[in-house]
Amino acid sequence: MATIQWSETYRLGIGSIDTQHQRLFKIIEKINVLDMQNPSLKNEVREIFYELSDYMKKHFYDEECHMRRIDFPELEHHQTMHHKMIHQVNELIASKLPLEMIQTKLKFAIKKTLIEHIIHEDMKIKRYQSHNRRPHHDDFVMELPQV
Ligand SMILES: [Fe+2]
Fold first, then answer.
1. Structure pTM?
2. For residue range 75-120, what is the model confidence (pLDDT) as tens digits?
3. CA distances from 122 to 2, 26, 71, 100, 146 (A)
4. Ligand 1 centre from 45 Cα, in Å?
5. What is the pLDDT of residues 112-147, one digit of tens each?
């Protein structure tokens, strides 16, 4: 599978969300390049899987707070999609499947759901925001540690 990298296509123009999306892509990249043939990396692999799950949870929570602040009308529907994605990822990483198979399924799920979600659903926030209100003073750019 080709590497998935953040690009301007994914930019919402909302600093805090864009910064978090960039970090998500960095974690996804780590999962994509994991060498599953190396048994000594087993613990590291698990850690990266949980890093993805934890960061998705944090990011979705922050994104939902932003939607609430701007009175985004599809908040509930959007929230449901977030919950489904977290559930799907958590179920996968907690499964008893071999790590290599989890990695493959995770990569597929990320591409099919998370990336598609950014392109189709998160972009609705951008459109709503640009049509309905001026940029919010909370649209700050967060300083995040390098992944
Ligand atoms: Fe979202």
1. 0.85
2. 999 999 999 999 999 999 999 998 889 999 999 999 889 999 999 9
3. 23, 18, 14, 30, 23
4. 25
5. 899 999 999 999 999 999 888 655 555 555 555 665
Cα of 60 from ligand 1 centre, angstroms: 6
At the topology level, CATH places domain 22-27+44-131 in Four Helix Bundle (Hemerythrin (Met), subunit A) (1.20.120)
- In the chain, the amino acid numbered 145 is P
CA of 147 to the centre of ligand 1 (A): 21
Domain boundaries, the chain: 22-27+44-131
CA of 41 relative to ligand 1 center, distance in Å = 31
Those residues with Cβ within 8 angstroms of residue 117's Cβ, 6 or more apart along the chain or in another chain: 81, 85
Q: Count the Cβ atoms, other than its own, within 10 Å of residue 34.
A: 19
Instruction: Tell me the C-alpha distance between 30 and 35, whole Å.
Output: 10
Distance 32 CA to ligand 1 centre (A): 21
Write down the residue that tokens 């990569």 correspond to. Answer: 107
